[in-house]
Amino acid sequence: MIACVSGTPDALQGRNPSLSSAAQGFGPEDALAALRKCANFGQLKQAHARIIRSGLSGDQLLARKMIQVCSSHNRMDYAALVFRQIERPHAFTWNVMIREYTMNGGSRRAILLYNLMIIGGFAPDKFTFPFVVKACIVSSVIDKGREVHGMAIKAGFSRDIFLQNTLMDLYFKCGDKECGCRVFENMPVRSVVSWTTMISGLIACGDLDAARGTFERMPNKNVVSWTAMINGYVKNGQPQEAFDLFQRMQIDRVEPNEFTLVNLLKACTELGSLKLGGWIHDYALKNGFNLGVFLGTALIDMYSKCGSLVDARQVFDEMQIKSLVTWNAMITSLGVHGCGEEALALFSQMEKANVVPDAITFVGVLCACVHMNDVEKAYELFVNMRELYDITPLPEHYACLLELYNRTTVQDEDLNFLNNVQMKQNNNILAALLEADIAQDVSSADRNFPSSFEEASKVGSIYQCQLPRFKWDVG
């Protein structure tokens, strides 16, 4: 990790003081404009080269902008080289580098960079600590978070509201409810974000009653606060309470946002109420909500789980932009509800649209094959999943194959394939299913696992009772 921060190519080290920006007609404002126009990494390198030639390498504003552009193109390795050129980085520059590492999946490198900052004698500012705490949240390292908290206290920033909100988030997400509550109670001033973080944290820790009590104490509630509480009820299997709170929200004339409606659609699914789900859909249309990826996918999920595939397909067809989750929701809905040919046709359409499927997609299409009793197509899809898309099979995939074997007579070559595939990892298919908690309903007497699909057929069908419990929710 240290190498990623300290490594520097020779080409970047040289600076010719005789080349002034004025002589080149390329000043800091020109350089900043050039960086803002970079549409790809190649253009960034060209702009960087010009900055070096113009003697502007030491401009920290430009360095920070280059780091941000590198981050947007997922090139934190190059950002580290840019950062290394700065002789005495300002705290703001350290902060940008720490933040961008965290945003690009390098939270542990962000923490390492903070360590180097402290060891190097560079003084952090009030923004440094929240950025590092966020890195601790992503990395789930509560002990380091406590250490950073202590450093912030020593540095005199413990009462910064942004830091306090982030610390609450850390403690709650890492399961330390007591410390999270303590931070909240010791806050001299609380913002709406503070209250909402406290509510969400209590919900995450399973204390719904305390969350509701905090919600009621909240002096000023906004749509995020209401939605957080509604989400808490939905997640804890209390959909009716979620709708009761939504009714109060309307009485208080607080307009819902897209996240509110998505949570209510999940509540409709819990209640199994197609009528209520349709009302939410109508509400969204009448109040100007766009049928975007998040809301549209939630509608597909609700309609399909409440038994209206026609409405689900209509929403799918009306959506202008579809994510992988959207395709999965529709394909899986069709697959598990017996519309095999339609599911496979939609899968073909997805491939033609250059959308790369994932493991969930193949659960849907293999379910479709089961309903069609098409073992040859299932075999073809299973092979493509492994060899074309490099997806490791899930126990749900094996459940589909096992069900097909139970129903049909397969060719010897297919049987040999099914007997051998992934056996080295799991010894046998049913063992893999048990490990994934799919074979919970197989009696203990039946848990003498066979070594082949042929023997497994004697156990009976697990597909019908187990696969419908597979989780394919939208979020």
Descriptive labels:
68% helix, mainly alpha, 31 helices, 475 residues, disordered N terminus
Q: How many beta-strand runs?
A: 0
Rg: 28 Å
- As a percent range, the share of strand residues is under 5%
Distance between the termini: 33 Å
Largest sheet: none
Mean pLDDT: 84
Uncertain residue segments: 1-23, 421-470
> Can you count the helices?
31
Structural class: mainly alpha
Work out the helicity level: 55-70%
In one word, what is the shape? globular
Give a written overview of the molecule:
α6 runs antiparallel to α7, α7 packs antiparallel against α8 and α25 packs antiparallel against α26 (395-407). Among the domains are: 235-321; 323-475. With 475 residues, the chain is an all-alpha fold. The chain contains 31 helices and no strands. The longest helix is centred in the middle third of the chain and has 14 residues, at 258-271.
